[in-house]
């Protein structure tokens, strides 16, 4: 009897977790960007019908040492400000060429299906785009609770926020995560 009950609970929990995973969604609310004209002739980010679009004209190659600082922030109910819940610096070239899959690499792999981004470094001077990208339900960490989020993504060379820091591009993206 206990074996049958345990198997029933396991099957129910497995089915229940798939439903929750499948129902999780990310809605893009707004996005903006600033860029260093030394590296980009143009960069635009737009959100339309819950899809993200980017256009960029790269004026210098992207080479090893190109890094990104992610800061995922949450605004609690009735709060005015966002609070950081996750912050990390990654080497972009190393992360995209690594064998190991990371959250950043899975986002980037999915984005490349919607544009002509280069998948490895160096990235040559030219026009790059991403059209109609929607963040899939499996592209969020499980520790993120449903709520209103802001992602601040800073691309740079050097060491983050030191004398050697050279900002190339900053993106701010507001979203709602739902189950």
From TrEMBL:
InterPro entries: DUF1091 (IPR010512), GM2-AP_sf (IPR036846). SMART domains: DM8. Residues 1-22 form the signal peptide. Keywords: Signal. The keyword Metal-binding does not apply. This is Uncharacterized protein. The lineage of its organism: Eukaryota, Metazoa, Ecdysozoa, Arthropoda, Hexapoda.
